[in-house]
Design a protein that fits this description.
- By secondary structure, the protein is an alpha+beta fold.
- It has a single domain, classed as 3-Layer(aba) Sandwich (Glutaredoxin).
- Helix content is 24%, strand content 14%.
- The protein has 3 helices and 6 strands, in the order βαβααββββ.
- The strands form 2 sheets. The chain has a 4-stranded mixed β-sheet with strand order 2-1-3-4.
- Strand 3 and strand 4 form a beta hairpin.
Length: 139
């Protein structure tokens, strides 16, 4: 089993994907630190560290659906990484979820079954909220 105290989940309980990831972690015997990032937004330092650990800059972590993405003009490719991070800090709903941090990797877990590949001992099979069954061997 992975050292459970060293797994962190940046979670939005209103998001089905995020709920599925949390449930898969628990079904795998993990007890992650759960950070509801809309209640306790990350600091600039934390957000920058997450982005660096995931690689690819802040754009892959930006969420468009149900956010002020369009109103803020965030599709503009001329915006700097710092400007995108400023927007995420001002509007945490722009941060896509769920983000899982393990001792060896940080990853946006979309689709939710991505989390199974991050664990030493993932649950063999899990039925998601929508009834889809995922298998660790195929994750």
């Amino acid at each position: 089993m992975t050292d459970s105290t060293r797994i962190t989940l940046y979670h939005n309980p209103a998001c089905g994907t995020s709920r599925n990831v949390l449930a898969m972690l628990k079904a795998s015997g993990e007890t992650p630190e759960v950070i509801e990032y809309l209640v306790t937004p990350p600091t600039r330092e934390t957000l920058e560290a997450l982005i660096t650990a995931m690689g690819g800059g802040p754009r892959p972590l930006l969420r468009r659906k149900g956010t002020p993405f369009d109103e803020l003009g965030l599709e503009n490719s001329a915006l700097s990484d710092a400007e995108l991070i400023d927007a995420m800090l001002a509007h945490p709903i722009l941060i896509n979820r769920p983000v899982v941090v393990t001792p060896t990797v940080t990853r946006l877990c979309r689709p939710s079954e991505v989390v199974l590949a991050l664990l030493d001992n993932p649950v063999a099979e899990y039925t998601k909220e929508d009834g889809d069954v995922v298998h660790a061997s195929k994750a």
